[in-house]
Amino acid sequence: MVLPSSRTSSRLACWARTVAAIATVGLSLGPVTLLVVTSVARQWYWPAVLPPEYSLRAWTDIASPSSGVIPALVTSGGIALAVTALALIVGLPAARALGLNEFRGKRIVAFLLLLPVLTPPLASVMGVHAIFLRFGLTDSLLGVILVHLIPAVPYCALMLSSSFANFDTDWEAQARTLGASRLATWRYVTLPAIAPGVAIAAVFAFLISWSQYLLTLFVGGGHIITLPLLLVAFQRSGDQAIAAALSLVFLAPTLALFAVAARFLKHDPSSV
Amino acid sequence: MVDAMPIESSRIYQALGSVQRSRRFRIASMLVPALVVVGVLFVGGLLVAIGQSVGYFPLIGKRHLTSSHYGALFHDLEFRKSLALTFILASASTLISSAAGLALALALRDMARHSRLLIALLQVPIGVPHLVMAVALINVIAPSGLIARSVCAAGLIRTPLDFPVLVNDRYGSGIILAYVLKETPFIALMVLGVLVRLGDEYHSMARTLGASAWQRWRYVTLPMVAPALVSGALVVFAFVFGAFEIPYLLGRPYPAMLSVVAQRHFMNVDLTERPEAIAIAIVIAMIASLVAWIHMRLARTLTGVGRPTIF
């Protein structure tokens, strides 16, 4: 039954699979490995393929108060946590309305929410800057948090709406019939049912804020120094070891949160 | 009895109407906070920006409407070069990462059904911020980077000057490469989503009916994955067209991609350069919105919403 041609094609398929698997591993682990090595390399000059010596110089440098990394870390983390909380508070009701109901204008609402996610926010932020100038919100933490909500809120609302789409409101009705308060119903019925979606939306909101560069630069005006701003400055200064170490610090929550989120994900590539 | 019927039913309709109204009110009140955020910050910001780009800029004392900023823009050689460069680099990044992502998905299709690890690995590059990807890539492809050193160790070149310039070069190769590394896994995951969901049945049916490998690919697999592939590609294009970090670190200062030019004008201490910066940003927004709109029309044929990349 097996024809010669199908045997060569199956050998080809085997090769393709191997190459693809190697590429996948390389793409995901390559950058991190390289950054780790670069961050501890010492006097790694041309033409050495491997570092001749290792040292923790870059790491002690970024840990020292003069580098400004620790305040930037606190600023970045604080902004990202605030953005996550606000995006969930604002996004959850909208997600429920979109996920559980059919109503006139639903398509327009979905379009409005999708637009900031799909189009670069450059023009909006320039306008927002002019608005914030009037209200004294430029160069302030609050201004930066607000402007990070532009991508974070629509993202949360859209992601959570698919959680609500799979949620059966009859469970809530049962709990209410049995005498549970609104708060208790939300706490013990609704929230557990949508928890995986909420966890993933929270992770994404955090990371969206955490990795913003341009929005922070425009509205923060160089007064609000977050980690990405510092990273660009170090990268442009040419110290590769410090840039690599800082990149790893910048990447740490991404990797940690992905590991946590992976526990909530079912085996389904479409539920990224 | 018979007379009472219309009264009863009209009461029921009245009650139903008020239920409907309160339902509509409830839905609206749940949507308001999110719509205020998007409406004030995104749409409001956009409208103010459009106002400024046509000369309404009270801050520097300008209130006369004019299209001169756009006119000047399209006569400006730097802008035209940047626009062309942005189009070319966004198209190249999109085409290469779509082709590579499709190939990756097809090759991984059987493994992806059983391996959760594989899917998790594919998600890692999507979570890596563009800035970090740029920093890592510079260490690899710079004239004194890892590749150049390996080539030197193999005895093919002697100094970094012999190595082709891939960073801050005139062709934007570093920019394209960075986007390809970031977006290929994204496209692969979108295509894999369809392949895994639809399973193997259509494929084996076609095989049973005597379809050749080419026919199975052309008439079964390709039509199945095309919507996901195209909508993923449009998301990538819209993103790359307006993204800033990668061209800022890996591109040349002149001609630069539009977002870099817009940023430079906007951050200039000379406020009179702002309308030009804003006009460029609006050109970016219009082109990206057009692409996003096409994406949304296509996405309706897919289940759910295409997951865009923001990082």
Question: What can you tell me about this protein's structure?
Answer:
The complex is a heterodimer of chains A (272) and B (311). Chain A is mainly α and 272 residues long. Chain A has 2 domains: 7-55, no CATH class; 59-271, MetI-like fold, CATH 1.10.3720. Chain A contains 11 helices and 2 strands. Chain A has a two-stranded antiparallel sheet with strand order 1-2. In chain A, helix 2 (57-63) crosses helix 11, helix 3 (69-100) crosses helix 8 and helix 4 (106-118) packs across helix 6 (141-165). Chain A is globular. With 311 residues, chain B is mainly alpha-helical. Chain B has a single domain, classed as Orthogonal Bundle (MetI-like fold). Helices cover 75% and strands 0% of the residues of chain B.
SSE map:
The complex is a heterodimer of chains A (272) and B (311).
Chain A: H1 4-40, E1 41-42, E2 53-54, H2 57-63, H3 69-100, H4 106-118, H5 122-135, H6 141-165, H7 170-177, H8 182-210, H9 214-220, H10 227-237, H11 240-264
Helix pairs in contact in A: 1-11, 2-11, 3-6, 3-8, 4-6, 5-9, 6-8, 6-9, 7-8, 8-11, 10-11
Chain B: H1 4-53, H2 68-75, H3 77-114, H4 116-127, H5 130-141, H6 146-153, H7 173-198, H8 201-208, H9 213-242, H10 245-250, H11 258-267, H12 274-299
Number of helices of chain B: 12
Q: What is the helical fraction of chain A, as a range of percent?
A: over 70%
What characteristic shape of chain A results from the CA principal axes?
globular
Could you give the order of the helices and strands of chain A? HEEHHHHHHHHHH
Can you name the CATH architecture of chain B? Orthogonal Bundle
> Which fold name corresponds to the CATH topology of the largest domain in chain A?
MetI-like fold
Q: What is the spatial order of strands in the main beta sheet of chain A?
A: 1-2
Q: Based on DSSP secondary structure assignment, what is the total number of beta strands of chain A?
A: 2
